[in-house]
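[Automated response] Your request has been received and processed.

Submitted sequence:
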Amino acid sequence: MIFDHETAAEVADELAEEIAGYGDGPEYDAILAFGAFSYPGNKRANEAMMRVRRKLDAGLGEHLFGEYRTCKIGITQDVSDVEIAMQGARFKTLILAALMMGVGAKITDTQKAHLRKVCAIYDGFLPECGVVGSGERQFLFALRTYTAGKPRDWTRLNCYTCGRTSQDTGAEPFRCPGECWNFFCNEDCQQRLSHVCDSDYIEE
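Generated structure:
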């Protein structure tokens, strides 16, 4: 799961404060629930999630996405600082998009195209951040199948091969009985990465 990683969680926390306008409260909590609030019976949480969604759909989402996409960098910075800032901004757009999907906010086709491009050119900056390996596959599958108004639950285990979760398949993924500790949604996905399961050590 993308937000299991410390770097992604820290960026998500920063964005949640920016979106909610404060660092505590129901809207802040709804954003950092990563989609898990989107279930019947929790009226207060769902109302907070809806308020966040309306705020993002009213223009805040487009504004934040544009802000991090353009990555305004001072011309006095050296090349290495510029590259680090650009990589950080790219990563922030991915986490912003994931949070927006978590509350069911709108993501335009143009934004989706940009996010796919960012994933394609991602060169391993902060590899522990989660948007690499199975985390990247989870993100790209969610992006491809996402429908506004239907929050994406990022708290569920995802298939190591295709990125799907029980939200997509209706069944919990199973853990490989070998030494790899990865989860798969079906035997086909497990077989496709049989070389990974045979390894003694897995590094995404």
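Summary generated for your ticket: Residues 2-123 form one domain. Strands lie at 174-175, 183-184.
If you did not submit this request, please reply to this message.
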